[in-house]
Amino acid sequence: MIPVRLAIRKSVAVWLLAAAAAAPLQAAGERLEEAVRLYDAGRYAEAKPLLEQLVASGNADGITHYRLYFCQRDAGESSHRQTLETARSLLEKEVLEADGFEAAFYLSNAYSNLGLTSEVPRLAADVTGRFEAGKIGTPTQPVEQFRLAKLYADQQKELAASPWFEKALDGFEAS
Predict the structure, then answer these.
(1) Which end of the chain, N or C, is more open, meaning fewer C-beta atoms within 10 Å of its C-beta?
(2) Using CA of residue 164, residue 98, residue 113, residue 129, what is the dihedral sign?
(3) 13: which residues sit within 8 A by CB, 6+ positions away?
């Protein structure tokens, strides 16, 4: 009977440790979700402290750094340039593995904001080329359709961008 109780206690201890370890991750996920909601609504002052917490935790990706940069810039903070450089560095790695257009969208914006405008069409051509080769799936959500359209527009390919802008607009209007 004692080995069974010991096994139960060990199982409970392992479960409690796993739950404790998952709690910060869940809290971070909830903070990110709230930060993105506020950011997307243009409520940058409210999103900023949540984004700062995420970045301080060391688990933030390039997109999170870019959003923090934008909030810092909106608040007139001088640290925004360094945050943008960090975002660019992370995004350049992340865009290589991305199965969508979000990382490229933010990297394109980072290049523009850093004055690296010659990098924008090169990046856009690389990502849209991967899309056209079937390496990135067809976007079904309006925000991803918009991002793809912008990447075509970044290359001055208005004929390719136009249908994606229209699909995105239709999707945004429907929702």
Answers:
(1) N
(2) negative
(3) none
Residue 80 to residues 28, 46, 77, 113, 132, Cα–Cα distance (Å): 22, 16, 6, 11, 35
What stretch of H or E contains 48? helix 44-56
What is the rounded CA–CA span in Å between residue 145 and residue 136?
Answer: 12
| Distance from C-alpha of 174 to C-alpha of 58, rounded to nearest angstrom | 38
Cα(153)–Cα(121) distance, integer angstroms: 9
Secondary structure (3-state) at 50: helix
Give dist(CA 107, CA 101) in Å, integer.
Answer: 10
CB 76 within 8 A of CB 58: no
User: DSSP assignment, residue 138?
Assistant: P
Strand, coil or helix: what is 154?
Answer: coil
Q: What whole-number distance in Å separates Cα of residue 105 and Cα of residue 120?
A: 10
**pLDDT tens for residues 113-156?**
999 999 999 999 999 999 999 999 999 999 999 999 999 999 99
Question: Where do we find the tokens 């370890």?
Answer: 21
The rounded distance, in Å, linking the Cα atoms of 73 and 131 is 32
Q: Tokens 């990297």, residue?
A: 107
What is the predicted pLDDT for the residue at 3?
Answer: 52
For 120, other C-beta atoms within 10 Å of its C-beta total 18
